[in-house]
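Hi team, as promised in this morning's meeting, here are the two structures we talked about. I've kept the exact order from the run log so nobody has to guess. The first one is mostly here for context; it's the second one we should focus on when we meet again. Sequence first, then the predicted structure tokens.
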Amino acid sequence: MSALILAVLLAALDQTIVSTALPRIAEDLNGFDDIAWVSAAYLLASTAVTPLWGKLGDMFGRKRLYLASTSIFLIASVACGLAQSLPELIGARVLQGVGGGGMIVLTFALVGDIVAPGERGRYQGMFGSVYGVASIVGPLLGGVFTDQLSWRWAFLVNLPIGAVALAVAARSLPAASRRSRARIDYLGSLVLAAIATGLVLVTSFGQRWGWTSPAITGLIAGTVALAVLLVPVERRAAAPVLPPAMFTSRTVVFSSLIGFVANAAMFAVLVYLPTYLQIVHGVSATLSGVFMLPLVAGLVVSQSLAGRWAARTALLRRILLGGLLANLAGLLLLSTIGAGTSTLVLSGYFLITGVGIGMVPMVVMTTVQNSVGPADLGAASAVVTFARSIGAAFGVAIFGTLLNTGFADRTRGLPVAGGFDAARPDTIGHLPAALQGTALDAFAHATAAGYLWMAPALVAGTALALFLEPARPQRPAPAGNVRTTGTGATGAMAGTAADGTVKAA
């Protein structure tokens, strides 16, 4: 578990740690025009390969795939740290995303393999907490490395931590005893990767290129066409990367949609609340992270408690509904913030929001894993991870558009109108002192309005949860069942059979 936690920490950090280092990277590598690709390349690659890593883990055993993805991630981290030009860095980030995507989805699937079904929620909650904390700590670490050392350490720091994770995993993880002889679904993997590419490009560059521009509308049309094509492609595949049964499983579909909307709301909070604190309350990047500690505390505590409560399958839907409602309450409270909202009141809002954020991901993953057999555990985990990744991208993109549009509407006539970008919060600081108060108030109200507009997505997610019936964990056939040994929650798994079932030690 220690090795898996370190891997999730590294993969999650590299989605956010670069954000505060981007201006310095652009300056050093002379690439201001294309700097957005440094973040987009990692997100694109990690999202595109997630389903393939999950399916390959089902077919050939997760240990060797996990070690391979971690090794790719570490090699790419070295390449990122040594890059001498922006194209080199972007290429290394693509490779890093390939490894990072595998690390995350295989970790969640490995938990499903080696942990007794009744205890999955507790461990999934642990990893979910790591993921949430990394989303807040990442930008802070990136800022510290950039200011005190070099932006290159945002990548090189992965090496010592990753080496420990790799060594422990190589020694401790159970190995697969046999390989599957089924053919890899290359066509399905290619179509799915193209869909992910289109979605990430739309969300990453929609505002920059224009949501109605030919490039974005063409990407949207192409992505929709590929999504329609994916279903018949997977039905014809011998070993589909996304088994067709998952398209018809209400549990998988509803859980994935809930994960999508919950992650959209979560990343709208995690990415833009620090910006609000820095601009409106005038705190530093580091201090904004301190102000976010109530949210982190709520997230970690709720993940832990929900994981323990989820040992009883009957409570899964109640926990999920509670988390979604708490998250919705948090967004509605955040929709009331203004320039004069006190830090004490904000701390209360952050705590409630964190509680809601923490309870949802664990239940979604556990519910899906309980609904499928061992042969599809990796593919099912990948579906949820894929939906959550796309949800995060959409949440950041949509909220950024709402924020910029709302701010421009409220500052029409001021010198800042039309020229503000939430990624460059120093814009307001360059205004004349007499106008800064008006601009700060406008920014606070635009942020609040953005959270109000995000609330209907959580209402839809809550409605879906009402119709979600968490299944009891599916167990393999007696010839190849998973058994836990001793009195602990984890079991010893000898390997994965050719047909995908898990053989007990």
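And here is the second protein, the one for discussion:
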Amino acid sequence: MVGLNVALQLPFWVLKNFYSFQRPIFNEDLMLAILVFSISARLGWLVLAAALLVDVVRIASLNYHFLNVADFIGSVRFLSMMDLAPFVTWAAFAMLFMGALYLLTLLQLLKRWRAPMAAIQIALIAGVLLADGLNGSMQMAGIGQDKLREPYNVGGSPVWNLYKMQQAVSPQAKGLQPIPSHARDSILQWHATHPSSSVLLVLVESMGQPVSPSLKDWLMRQIQSPALLQRWTLTSGKERFSGSTTHGELRVLCGLDGAYDMLDTNKSRDCLPHQLGADQFVAVGYHGFQLSMFDRNRWWAVAGLQAHHFDYQQSASQVKDCHAVFNGICDQEVLRTALQTVQKPRRLAYVVTLDTHLPLSTGSEPQSPQLAGLCARAEVSAASCALVGQLGALLRGMATQLEDSDATPYVAIVGDHAPPFIRTEDRQAFLAQEVPFILLEPRDTPLHEPIPKAP
């Protein structure tokens, strides 16, 4: 059992690629699989494969902010749209090779010492159950919810935890539920006093709120150019998020949280396109990737958006493929097209960005000496600093385009979710449950009542 876990975990430890969440490494599912090996090698392989698969699915779904494992499994159907080459790393090969090597060795040992190994495994299971109770996660013989006192827990059952997590999603919770969004509320408040003013709403992929005050201030300064501040008043704050990107879309568009496939005509009445449509607004949605990803070509229409379809094949090479995994139209080109829409009154342009999606592409925005110095003083990892740099480049490009805009629309910029880094060191550089927003209010037509600044 120790050998199995060492083989599976060693590449992560050597590369210091620690998990971004606590999980039971020496868990009861693997113990059971090894015990079954003592009885039947063929059945042991099946049980072990099932235990590892459930653990991987549970880890991946939590890491990428999927609230429901079934939704994560359902997203596998979109893998064909992505270029998965960047995910093929030496660490992945090392883990697979070492794991396979150990399992083959284990099989040979079990063939020789099947009866003694069974007795040893039974003793080990008893020890793990005892350690599980002492560590604080013991519930119903250690198959309950993990409450980890140490980063590397002994005990727990990923299969049972997955079952309990799914069971916790009650039928009522599976439906769409109200969720507050300061960015959305500010648009409605602005529209109430400026019914003809156009609106640009930008949902930024993986724009988390840096924990470091210096990095947070640096990121906010990237959009605060003197020319922009002459025409807009900037306020910023943070709001809570729940779930993955499509959850973020429903939050800022409709003030709802849940699965997008639950959105129907009745539940979409509060979505911004329908709210503003009462005043003859034209609402258009923009995204640089294929709109069939996460069925945006279907549910955007239910939310009241007219989807803009970019011609990827006919687009110039310099405005596409800024992301290695998601080959699509670059964010700055998408924003340029969206800004053209809001040059006219009574327009809502909704943009979902792409270039800051993890993993960042090789050759992403190079770090400035100033940012590198701030990251060093804040003891932020290289990966986290690179993402802050990429987010800063996006905001600087947005500021430049807004400066050149003839019209002065109301602008709301907000993150979808915290960056889904796998490493703890990278993930801890950002708030775990909140994302930033930036509001740009036109100066030439101030609000009758100021927008309250979020804490």
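Starting points for discussion:
The chain has a mean pLDDT of 82.
The first strand starts at residue 23 and ends at 26.
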